[in-house]
Write a structure and sequence with these properties.
alpha/beta, 7-stranded parallel beta sheet, 6-stranded parallel beta sheet, 21 strands, binds adenosine-5'-diphosphate, binds magnesium ion
């Protein structure tokens, strides 16, 4: 297949420089790109509807001939044109209407045959179809790509029609398929009953039957999963090859730490800690992901792991995405250690963030290098070059999705292959986790500490804000604390929503004038933010008006009510994270969503929040609403590069592909065996920069 990857699309008949440009815009540069440009959907044109059989409200495909066409300006707006075309078949007539596409008129000469696709509507007593997709059909000779079969429909490059695109693609396939080599080794194909590549490509575009389309889809999805798993699995194997640090497990520090806590670990926490300790004891470096909903208690588990590292005479580093969170962890861990007395007292913990002043920072750097500091907690600041460890053996990265992939490996780089634990509070279904984090082992804390009530989540319309404020006042009257969250700092005329600043002024002198109210947002100086948070924590404040700076990790048990205004402006995961800031103690807590619901998606998000409190469930809904690509937002995960495979619906296939990847790399980690040569080429071509060194190194 590599030849086709090198062959520019321009070598295809009918593709000149101009068209090549349009193709490039949708990511088609080579002939192989074209073959891997899969249809958006298929239309079954083996049995087209007849006009007499069209039903209002249905989305249907039918064939018809143009009777007459007409173009006029809208009577409402002169600049707005309407193209109306009546078409017929032997059973009836229907009118097709296009808005504001005056150039269409030229296509619809009487007698021209069309295939039309769209939603059938009613207009007066007659059927109509608005802005249908259409194709002009000519009854050519030989095989038709456009009628009488399952027909592929593509997201087209600019300036080319469905028909033309199909023709180009089919000619390309006919010419080049005979020389296509299959990169999947034969025995893997045989074990999983997979079609060969040439047949799959042909049938994904021009299926002989629905059955063959399915098989082609399976094969191509398997290939994609397999290619994605190979580098991940390989990385995992490589990391295990390099010698790491074998910690002594079962020491006093961990026991002391756990027994000094004011609570008992949940079973899920114990299990996760057990898995982590088992990894730490091994002479290979741990590569583990710890998943758990907000409030499930990941921090204590991570801290216990730090104790294990320190017990063995090493240093641990704990990196978090924000300043506030870093400070909170620092204070909490410090107070836990101090409270216990005994050996824990002598552990030295320090904090480094962007706002640590230079002098102090240099002192800390020095002490870290000397090995005088056992546990260092901080933000990105920990990644700075000047910071060097004496003996780093454990790295913890909290809320890892807030860091880039490259940042993820920087901190471990400061030790001799230290153990790595990364944590996420956006738990995702296991198959997705495997797709994204196939190079990691996974632990899950799937249980909340006992006695915690689910946060009662209530939705009111934005205009009913008062009802939300009433609930907040009840909580305040009970000596509890309240957050009110806004999506923006300044009000915005474009978005037409109130900002935190203005609302703070209003609420403080109006609705909540009897209470101590403060404002916090990301544009305040760090010390300022910290001061306010501290006041709130010490109950010197009753109500905090805030933006999403509160999003991560803030842990204040007496905050029992959160109002999120303009909740439709937040993503589902964001809302869930915010909600996790309340319900941290044993009292019943409230999350009030004030929203103007204008879109179906916003409605789904709010409904999910009201209905579910479990982060796994929330993630599942979010994934359904947005699709995996959007869900992760950033390209970093490569998930958006999955063109055809879907980890959410093809679990078995993914598992199979992963097992095969492990089996293969265990036998031939450099892919040097003859039967793996093509696979290696394909892999390097797919992941050129990032995996080349792995394969040869
Ligand atoms: P997250 O998983 O969101 O990082 P945290 O580690 O911040 O959760 O824990 C949330 C709160 O629950 C903290 O105040 C923590 O001390 C407390 N906590 C953790 N584990 C338990 C437990 N087993 N029982 C009771 N409270 C716990
Ligand atoms: Mg946390």
């Amino acid at each position: 297949m590599n030849k086709l990857q090198e062959t520019s699309i321009q070598y295809l008949k009918g593709v000149g420089p101009k068209r090549a440009k349009a193709f490039a815009q949708v990511g088609i540069n080579t002939i192989e790109d074209l073959f891997y440009y899969f249809p958006r959907r298929y239309e079954d044109r083996t049995n087209l509807s007849l006009i007499s059989g069209l039903k209002e409200g249905a989305i249907q495909t039918f064939k018809a001939r143009v009777l007459a066409s007409d173009q006029r300006d809208s009577w409402r707006r002169r600049s707005f044109s309407i193209t109306e075309v009546s078409v017929e078949d032997k059973t009836g007539e229907i009118s097709c209407v296009w808005f504001n596409q005056p150039y269409l008129k030229n296509y619809f000469k009487p007698g021209v045959d069309l295939i039309l696709y769209g939603k059938i509507e009613h207009y007066g007593t007659r059927l109509q179809i608005h802005n249908p997709e259409f194709e002009i059909i000519e009854d050519g000779e030989g095989e038709s790509l456009d009628v009488g079969r399952l027909v592929p429909v593509y997201s087209l490059p600019q300036g080319i029609s469905q028909r033309h695109f199909r023709r180009l693609l089919k000619d390309g396939l006919d010419t080049h398929l005979p020389s296509v080599n299959d990169c999947l080794p034969y025995d893997i194909r045989a074990r999983h009953n997979l079609l060969n590549l040439a047949k799959s490509l042909l049938n994904i575009h021009f299926p002989e039957s629905l059955q063959m389309q399915k098989q082609a889809y399976e094969r191509l999805s398997f290939e994609e999963f397999f290619l994605f798993q190979l580098p991940l699995v390989l990385r995992k194997l490589k990391k295990k090859e390099k010698p790491g640090i074998a910690h002594k497990i079962g020491g006093e520090l961990v026991k002391e730490f756990i027994s000094s806590l004011t609570f008992k670990l949940t079973q899920a926490q114990e299990r996760a800690l057990g898995e982590i300790e088992a990894d730490m004891a091994k002479p290979q470096a741990m590569q583990r992901l710890l998943q758990g909903d907000v409030g499930s208690g990941k921090t204590v588990v991570a801290t216990a792991a730090c104790m294990a590292a320190i017990q063995s005479g090493y240093q641990a580093a704990f990196m978090v995405p924000t300043e506030i969170l870093a400070r909170q962890h620092y204070e909490k861990i410090n107070s836990q250690l101090k409270a216990s007395g005994g050996e824990l007292n002598s552990i030295r913990v320090e904090l480094v963030t962007g706002s640590t002043n230079r002098k102090h920072r240099e002192k800390i750097y020095h002490e870290i290098k000397e090995g005088k500091i056992d546990l260092i907690i901080g933000t990105h600041a920990l990644l700075e070059q000047g910071l060097k460890f004496k003996d780093l053996s454990l790295v913890i990265i909290d809320e890892q999705h807030k860091f880039g992939v490259s940042q993820r490996s920087l901190l471990p780089g400061k030790g001799a292959n230290p153990d790595l634990l990364i944590m996420t509070a956006t738990p995702i279904p296991r198959t997705l986790a495997i797709t994204l984090y196939g190079d990691l082992d996974i632990s899950v804390i799937d249980q909340l500490p006992p006695g915690r009530l689910p946060v009662k989540t209530i939705y009111f319309k934005q205009e009913e804000a008062k009802r939300g404020y009433e609930i907040a006042k009840q909580e305040l009257a009970a000596k509890n604390q309240v957050y009110i969250i806004y999506p923006v700092i300044e009000e915005s005329y474009v978005l037409d929503i109130a900002g935190a600043k203005k609302m703070y002024a209003q609420l403080k002198s109006g609705e909540f004038k009897d209470y101590r109210v403060a404002l916090i947002h990301g544009r305040l100086k760090q010390e300022e933010q910290d001061k306010i948070m501290l006041c709130f924590k010490n109950k010197e404040l009753d109500l905090l008006v805030s933006t999403t700076v509160l999003e991560v990790g803030i842990d204040i048990a007496s905050a029992t009510c959160m109002i999120i205004e303009h909740a439709q402006r937040f993503g589902l995961s964001g809302l869930h994270q915010l909600r996790g800031r309340v319900g941290r103690g044993s009292q019943e807590s409230f999350c009030i969503l004030l929203a103007d619901i204008e879109t179906e998606e916003a409605k789904q998000r709010i409904e999910a929040m009201v209905r579910y409190s479990d982060g796994f469930k929330i993630a599942e809904v979010d994934l359904k609403i947005r699709g995996p690509g959007e869900f992760f937002g950033i390209r970093q995960h490569g998930l958006t590069e999955l063109k055809i495979a879907n980890p959410l619906t093809q679990m078995q296939l993914l598992k199979g592909a992963r097992e095969e990847a492990i089996k293969l790399l265990n036998l031939d980690s450099r892919l040097e065996a003859r039967q793996n040569i093509l696979l290696k080429e394909r892999l390097l071509q797919r992941f050129p920069a990032y995996e080349k060194s792995m394969l040869v190194g």
